Amino acid sequence: MRHPLSLILLLIIAGCQRRPESAPSPAELRAGVVGRAWEVTMIGGLNASAAAPETPRGASGLPATLRFDATEPIVTGFTGCSDFRASYRLAADSLRFTDAAVGSVDCDDGRHLDAIMRTVLAHTRRAELRAGHLVLLADDGRPIAHLSERSK
Fold first, then answer.
1. In the Cβ-directed half-sphere of 116, how many Cα atoms lie within 13 Å?
2. What is the pLDDT of residue 69?
3. Residue 115: inside a domain
4. HEC string of 54-112?
5. Quick check: is 58 in a domain?
6. What's the number of domains the chain is made of?
7. Is 9 a domain residue?
8. Which pLDDT belongs to residue 107?
9. Has residue 135 been placed in a domain?
10. 135: domain CATH number?
């Protein structure tokens, strides 16, 4: 062997590389999402509100929320202005919201978040659990919302 030191260094470097976390199985994803309530903490990878950088806020300072029913494929929540109800389909890592019915409440302080949440519901195509957070993703894999489980 001509360069044993090079081979040893290569093996050491390869052993130190961070290995990606393995994605949860479809059953683990379902168990981690369904029957739980979630609070939107970030939109599109960026905090959505300069006034409250840790969590985007809507009307009366309330966060947008989603709750995935455990007995039927229904998600309910708050968009920032209005309550909503939609059907969801979670299969493997695919997640889609359909038939969304959003109340029509006129509110100034939550209008921006309300519009964003309606877009999030329309464009979500996948979901991942990352370190206990639910991440909603677009078709291209780009994160469009990050959620934390709500305390009971």
1. 23
2. 96
3. yes
4. CCCCCHHHCCCEEEECCCCCEEEEECCCCEEEEEEEEECCEEEEEEEEECCCCCCCCHH
5. yes
6. 1
7. no
8. 82
9. yes
10. 2.40.128.270
Q: Which residue has the tokens 């979630």?
A: 38
> How high is the pLDDT of residue 9?
34
The DSSP H or E segment spanning 134 is strand 133-137
Residue located via tokens 């998600």: 75
Could you tell me the two tokens for 87?
A: 């059907």
Tell me the residue range of the domain where 45 lies: 25-149
In single-letter form, the type of residue at position 76 comes to: T
Dist. CA 136–CA 43, nearest whole Å? 9
Length of the chain: 152
Count of other CB atoms within 10 angstroms of residue 17 = 7
For residue 77 the two structure tokens come to: 């929540």
Cβ atoms within 10 Å, residue 136: 23
With a cut of 90, say whether residue 65 has pLDDT above it.
yes
pTM attached to this predicted model: 0.76
Quickly state the pLDDT bin for 20 (edges 50, 70, 90): very low
Residue type, 28: E
Q: Is 80 left (phi over 0), alpha (psi -120 to 50) or beta?
A: left
Residue whose token pair is 């964003």: 116
